[in-house]
Amino acid sequence: xxxxxxxxxxxxxxxxxxxxxxxxxxxxxxxxxxxxxxxxxxxxxxxxxxxxxxxxxxxxxxxxxxxxxxxxxxxxxxxxxxxxxxxxxxxxxxxxxxxxxxxxxxxxxxxxxxxxxxxxxxxxxxxxxxxxxxxxxxxxxxxxxxxxxxxxxxxxxxxxxxxxxxxxxxxxxxxxxxxxxxxxxxxxxxxxxxxxxxxxxxxxxxxxxxxxxxxxxxxxxxxxxxxxxxxxxxxxxxxxxxxxxxxxxxxxxxxxxxxxxxxxxxxxxxxxxxxxxxxxxxxxxxxxxxxxxxxxxxxxxxxxxxxxxxxxxxxxxxxxxxxxxxxxxxxxxxxxxxxxxxxxxxxxxxxxxxxxxxxxxxxxxxxxxx
Amino acid sequence: xxxxxxxxxxxxxxxxxxxxxxxxxxxxxxxxxxxxxxxxxxxxxxxxxxxxxxxxxxxxxxxxxxxxxxxxxxxxxxxxxxxxxxxxxxxxxxxxxxxxxxxxxxxxxxxxxxxxxxxxxxxxxxxxxxxxxxxxxxxxxxxxxxxxxxxxxxxxxxxxxxxxxxxxxxxxxxxxxxxxxxxxxxxxxxxxxxxxxxxxxxxxxxxxxxxxxxxxxxxxxxxxxxxxxxxxxxxxxxxxxxxxxxxxxxxxxxxxxxxxxxx
Lengths: 370, 263
Hints:
heterodimer; A: mainly alpha; MetI-like fold; 75% helix; B: alpha/beta; Rossmann fold; 2 domains; six-stranded mixed β-sheet; 10 strands; 32% helix; globular; disordered C terminus
């Protein structure tokens, strides 16, 4: 694609200049055709030089690519295609219908998802109908019967890790991100905050989980705290970058009102990035739910833990069922977050909840017809 | 009484001279229009008065105090409005008075009722009381600029600076904004500096004129002293034909009476 580009563009100026020349010839003499020729030749030469440059760059990247392939052992892999296909067969259990037609046995997935409460825990919420709750059971009522996360079973645990991590990490990310901006803290000192965030980012969330296990034990608590730490590093960094983009105008306007420094930061700077900060936070929430799956693998619970447990038992069908549950969780979170973000960004009049639900078929039909 | 005094203000950006030895005195309550083409130093002059820009040489005094940094007595209105798009017109107006309250008070809008009524009063002055709850971003350019004026008024300034307040507005909104600006500065007896580049608008609303050309002061006088020759002088090689409307054509707007009230 890169080699095609310069050629494609080089044809444009030539045809332009020809068109220009014919226009000119009808009105004036030939003596201004020479500078056009010169310019054309100079452009051609420039294009050729650029093409050589691109070629050199591509060769260089190819060389680096080969080097990295060698470093990762890809040039001489220890591949066992037979074993791989065999395990794939277990990932996708096939039943023969009428002895001939192969069908993917979705029932096996569904059985495991229901059996392990991967997506829904039927025990939650059963007592809600026993209104009013007994006073002694307030805690149980709020956190078990109204367990908004528990009702989603194992998926709820993973979702909870991602959500709590984002919630706990956000205020610190906001503080570190704002203070890490060069516009708020003068140059050498802002690196105290940027450096802290770099350090947090340098350690992946899964390692943070391992670090917190001695403190909170092996479980979702460690995972949530680890994700909160990860959020400070990543979300804070996005905040710093976002603050680099803001305009000077509103900052100066707040300065002329005689506002003090924190007020200038809040009204002049943060107010400009409010919407994008919320959008970035939602994006990080999406990522945090994915990280929730990853840290589950080391034993912190949730869907990730089920995956690795079934893998250890070599029950690949169950593992695949869990992967489907993960897929459903992640897709739901992303859909929710994307809709929310596009709603935040649009300046349109906000729709009420009732309108959101009742107007859905109509809007869906409108989108489909577009 | 002299309220604003500029003494030999010079500002250079590297090799470029933005202002060269500009001096003048302005008594309290005057409506001063600064004229000049783009790059003549109008914005620099206003930024120095507001304390946003430091002069390379010379001194500026407001109320006898040297201008070093921005302060609440001097409010500024910008060409690009520079209001907070995510907040309502009311919250924007309220933001003008943040120097009188602490951080948390201003962030959570816990100011006392007097302060909040002041913000609404300022919005009323610029004709936006009805639209107080509207988000600033969804307003028209002219309305946004009026929110900017309201914010400046809530600041309770003694001096109002306006840097090309109507340059990005259509003629109708520009007239509105200038009328409200003029009205507000009269009602509150503010000394107002406004840079403008349309001579017609300037003559209609201005009381005193300071002309800048290539950073030098080339004219300083009141509206009856501003002749077509002076305009030619300020605008240099630019064809000024049609830019100048004589007084006889605009006696109805009553600007002639204001000179007597301000002295």
